[in-house]
Design a protein that fits this description.
Number of strands of chain B: 9
CATH superfamily of chain B: Dihydrofolate Reductase, subunit A
CATH architecture of chain B: 3-Layer(aba) Sandwich
Distance between the termini of chain B: 30 Å
Order of helices and strands of chain A: EEHEHHHEEHEHEEEEEH
Number of domains of chain A: 1
Shape of chain B: globular
Number of strands of chain A: 11
Radius of gyration of chain A: 17 Å
Mean pLDDT of chain A: 91
CATH topology of chain A: Dihydrofolate Reductase, subunit A
Strand order of the largest sheet of chain B: 4-3-2-5-1-6-9-8
Structural class of chain A: alpha/beta
Strand order of the largest sheet of chain A: 5-4-3-6-1-7-11-10
Order of helices and strands of chain B: EHHEHHEEHEHEEEEH
CATH architecture of chain A: 3-Layer(aba) Sandwich
Oligomer: heterodimer
Radius of gyration of chain B: 18 Å
């Protein structure tokens, strides 16, 4: 199998050192900004999201874009410039939302797709990289379907012990290739992995 | 006062699994240390030697103790000589006559024993590959530092380094680098709360603020 002719699907995820996306009470208070995922990516021309996270996502970024006062109240601070930038980029970039239950979206560039095959089709199109925004269920389905090419983790310096793990749904051992280890002044580490789907398959007897 | 370090270094998969690195337990995902360490294990060995040279003592659970004793007792060489000479403390309520040179059994309450050990020694007490003990020490805020080597694989099953914790444990990143091509080597310091272990200034400050 070769994926060199198709464009890369890159997930950028913020995790705790023990691999959780959310803590036991659904919190992620170690995250400074949800815009930070975009900063670790190359140029992208499509976003892919899971249906579970999308309603909150849509509401959050719509507020940043259209109602900064409401957004400030949620955040407990004014939106950062990089959050305004994220909202502007997101507003003009196609969003594919994988869901069999969502019926409609208010995000101007979003389209709900019920079938993962549509993502295979998106991958085959010519274009830039595709940003896989989350959540964990989508990321693991993409890993399990050999659709994810790269995983960029922003590892936060905290251990939470329980909650929603990023890799909870991985069904098969998955080989990775470390591309970069980048410590940040904030105490975070950015780890970039290429996913080597070919090596995930048990080697045939020699 | 010694510093307690979970290291050796501590090997984990990207999803935090520490179980069956050498495949001896025969688990389906076992054997990941060599398979995913590959040529990078040369760099890993340098780190392990360096860690052993700067350790003041090892603190281990019984099973890891027996594993390492079998492995290192008969060997010679820089790392083997160092480990055979190094003071080793084994947490066990059943072990009576430890065979490995320079070993001491700690059979009392783990937390008390470890606190005493930290008070008596200076330098680094390293806890290698003893995740159950590590979890206990971690729960009781006795760990000062963690040095992780992340192997480039998601295993999807197996015992994890961190069990359920009673609280969020904030940490401070000290260092992050790549060993060879594919291993990430991360060093964290635990951010200690005022109430834990040592009774230092924070307790007083805390009181005076009320």
């Amino acid at each position: 199998m070769t994926t060199t002719s198709s464009r890369p699907f890159i997930a950028a995820m913020q995790v705790t050192l023990d691999g959780y996306i959310l803590g036991p009470d659904g919190e992620a208070d170690w995250v400074d900004s949800w815009a930070d995922g975009l900063d670790v990516l190359p140029e992208v021309d499509a976003f892919v999201l899971g249906g579970g996270m999308f309603p909150d996502y849509e509401q959050f970024w719509a507020a940043i874009l259209d109602n900064p006062a409401a957004a400030s109240e949620w955040l407990g601070r004014d939106p950062y410039p990089r959050e305004l930038n994220y909202a502007r980029v997101a507003a003009k970039t196609p969003h594919l939302v994988l869901s069999t239950t969502l019926r409609h979206t208010t995000w101007p560039t979003a389209r709900i797709v019920p079938d993962i095959n549509e993502l295979h089709a998106l991958k085959a199109l010519v274009g830039d990289a595709v940003y896989v925004v989350g959540g964990p269920r989508l990321v693991t389905s993409l890993i399990n379907s050999d659709l994810l090419d790269e995983l960029r983790l922003i590892v936060h310096p905290v251990v939470v012990g329980s909650g929603t793990p990023l890799f909870g749904g991985v069904t098969q051992r998955q080989a990775l290739e470390l591309l970069r280890t980048e410590p940040r002044a904030s105490g975070r580490v950015n780890l970039t992995y290429r996913i080597r789907a070919a090596r995930a398959v048990t080697p045939a007897a020699a | 006062m010694a510093k307690l370090v979970i290291s050796g270094p501590q090997n984990v998969s990207l999803d935090g699994v520490i179980q069956d690195p050498d495949g001896k337990e025969g688990l389906s995902f076992g054997g990941w240390f060599v398979e995913f360490g590959g040529d990078d294990l040369e760099e890993w060995n340098k780190v392990a030697l360096d860690e052993a040279l700067r350790a003041e003592a090892w603190l281990l659970g019984r099973r890891s103790y027996e594993f390492f004793a079998l492995r290192w007792q008969p060997r010679t060489g820089e790392l083997a000589d160092r480990l055979n000479r190094l003071p080793k403390y084994v947490v066990s309520s059943t072990l009576e006559d430890p065979e490995w040179n320079n070993s001491t059994v700690l059979n009392g309450d783990v937390v008390t024993e470890v606190l005493n050990l930290k008070r008596e020694l200076d330098g680094e007490i390293v806890v290698p590959a003893s995740y159950q003990l590590g979890r206990t020490l971690f729960q009781h805020d006795l760990v000062d530092e963690l040095r992780l080597v992340i192997f480039p694989v998601v295993l999807g099953a197996g015992e994890r380094l961190f069990g359920e914790t009673n609280d969020k444990k904030p940490m401070r990143l000290i260092d992050a680098k790549t060993l060879g091509d594919g291993l990430a080597y991360l060093t964290y310091e635990f951010v200690r709360k005022a109430s834990a272990g040592e009774h230092q200034q924070p307790l007083i400050t805390h009181r005076s603020q009320r």
